[in-house]
Design a protein that fits this description.
It contains 11 helices and 29 strands. Strands 4-3-5-10-7-8 form a 6-stranded antiparallel sheet. A 6-stranded mixed sheet has the order 24-25-26-27-29-28, with helices on one face. It has a 5-stranded antiparallel sheet with strand order 1-2-11-6-9, with no helix packed on it. About 20% of the residues lie in helices and about 35% in strands. Helix 5 runs parallel beside helix 6 and helix 7 crosses helix 11. The protein is α+β, with helices and mostly antiparallel strands and about 525 residues long.
């Protein structure tokens, strides 16, 4: 049995996801208060850090490093030689815990789902002492049903975070050979040439890069929610652009509705143009038991196109989706979209092939930079800092930023701001400077990650390119060091398997992203989207 934490009962922020006097709208409790943390009982590092055995105040979303910095129990890793003084955190296991109150009315709902939007990285989640989730990918969202384990009154949520270094070290040690990682550790926590970062779906820069220190973060780095709903919910909504010319934009308002039974609902979409005019489409649909994909055609006359900065206005339309069941709203979602066409033009020339970004039929002279993570500890970054960085790119006459593949997929706010500014985004998938393993579990985790991230970001007109990675093919074909040694030490058959199969990770996920989304892709190369 898990003991109740000493810090007592925690009240929760409650966000009602519908408006008006409704009988039973979906309800979301945001679990962002009352978290505490400690070093996991039995961790060997407690001998050197005995004060970590007691429960300490935590911030969620956050990381163990940011919590310790806030408590002044960790020196600033950016100062002097402090990088070496913070390594013990990533080498230790940690435990987070909070207590939430659940009412009898909430327990009467058909479904109660616990949602972790981001766990970094190896985490086990328990509710009232019962394990409900084990995670291994910081880039994924985890939704688990918990109706059967919650009770009226106080409920304890515990998150046990395992050190990624300790978790992977014995596994890597037992491998006959190891795919080379980007950078070896200078702190002696992993053998040279056998670093584990390649095998973990975790931000590569946490393990150190040529531009930043090694801070192997771990924590509950994205929001945590408890969602209550009944026999149907709006699982996803997005707007697909089918056709665009100066006279009309043909769109599909696409609803994914999860239903427990055969029933009828009404779906509607309100489209607000940049000039404030509104049009509404509505349709009654019959649902089956399961996940229902529903598309409602929409036509926008005289569309106002989205243009990159310097080429025209970054016009945005707001689309509000609503699903009603009788008089009750059972789901709502709002998206901002831009109407534009995108092409990556590759034509033979005297040097090989051209590479042009073409927006709305106009070749764009791309001027930009890499956007690396804003901070080594991502949860310290504020929206105002993100705004300042993107605005500074525009002020410097840039029109494109590349979200670099050794970091993280950025927050929604970053892409929203880029949409607004007309700042194009070259979006990498999160692979950087390392040869990717090809085992089945890794491929499947990456596939789910790719699907989730594409679905999350696909409505943003700012994203004009999706790319498979940062420098992986270059590493394999041109670099020396560990990659050259690997190619010499394994058989030709193994070399071919490594080269061809690690290119399938992202591709297998993108194959499911929809006919109007993916236009083409190349092995380890650029994926161009006709964005919607």
């Amino acid at each position: 049995m898990l003991k109740t934490a000493k810090f007592g009962l925690i009240s929760l922020s409650v966000l009602w996801m519908a408006t008006g006097a409704l009988a039973a709208p979906p309800q979301v409790q945001v679990i962002d208060n009352g978290w505490h943390f400690r070093m996991a009982p039995g961790d060997e590092a407690l001998k050197a850090h005995p004060d970590m055995a007691d429960w300490l105040k935590a911030t969620v979303p956050g990381t163990t490093q940011s919590d310790l910095l806030a408590l002044k129990k960790l020196p600033d890793p950016y100062v002097s030689d402090n990088e070496g003084k913070v390594q013990w955190v990533g080498l230790s296991d940690w435990q987070y815990q909070t207590e939430i109150t659940v009412t009898e009315a909430t327990l009467q709902r058909d479904h109660l789902d616990l949602i972790f939007e981001g766990l970094d990285t190896f985490a086990q989640v328990s509710v009232n002492g019962q394990k409900v989730l084990a995670s291994d990918n910081m880039f994924r969202t985890w939704r688990v049903p918990v109706k059967g384990v919650l009770k009226t009154g106080a409920n304890i949520i515990t998150v046990d975070l395992a050190s990624p270094l300790k978790t992977m070290k014995p596994l890597v040690a037992d491998m006959p050979y190891v795919m080379p990682g980007a950078y070896d550790s200078v702190w002696g926590d992993e053998p040279l040439g056998r670093n584990s970062s390649t095998y973990v779906r975790k931000a590569g820069y946490h393990y150190g890069w040529d531009w930043g220190p090694r801070i192997v973060a771990l924590g509950i780095w994205k929001p945590v929610k408890l969602e209550a709903w009944d026999d149907a919910r709006l699982a996803d909504f997005h707007v697909a652009q089918v056709h665009l010319d100066d006279q009309v934009a043909a769109l599909e308002a696409s609803f994914d509705i999860q239903s427990d039974t055969v029933q009828t609902v009404t779906v509607s979409a309100d489209i607000t143009a940049p000039d404030g005019t509104v049009q509404t489409v509505k349709q009654e649909v019959a649902l089956f038991a399961g996940l229902n994909p529903i598309s409602v055609p929409v036509q926008v006359k005289s569309p106002q196109r989205w243009w990159p900065v310097g080429y025209g206005k970054a016009n945005l339309y707001t689309v509000k989706a609503t699903v009603t069941q009788g008089a009750d709203v059972i789901g709502q979602s709002t998206r901002k979209i831009g109407l534009r066409t995108t092409e990556i033009r590759r034509e033979k020339d005297q040097w090989g092939k051209s590479f042009e970004i073409v927006i709305n039929g106009v070749p764009v002279f791309a001027k930009g930079a890499n956007l690396i993570p804003f901070d080594m500890i991502p949860t310290r970054v504020t929206a105002s800092e993100q705004d300042r960085m993107l605005q500074s790119a525009v002020d410097a006459n840039m029109n494109i930023l590349r979200v670099w593949g050794g970091g993280t997929y950025q927050d929604d706010h970053v892409y929203d701001k880029a949409d607004e500014l007309g700042l194009m985004i070259w979006q990498d998938f999160m692979f950087g400077g390392a040869i990717i393993p090809y085992d089945r579990d890794f491929r499947e985790s990456t596939r789910v990650e790719a699907v989730e991230q594409v679905k999350r970001l696909r409505n943003h007109p700012s994203i004009v390119i999706w790319a498979g990675n940062n420098e992986v093919q270059t590493d394999w074909e041109n670099w020396g060091g560990g990659t050259a040694d690997l190619k010499k030490s394994v058989s030709p058959e193994e070399r071919d398997r490594t080269r061809h199969r690690h290119g399938s990770h992202v591709r297998s996920g993108l194959a499911r992203c929809g006919r109007s989304e993916c236009t083409r892709h190349t092995l380890l190369g650029v994926v161009a989207f006709h964005r919607l």
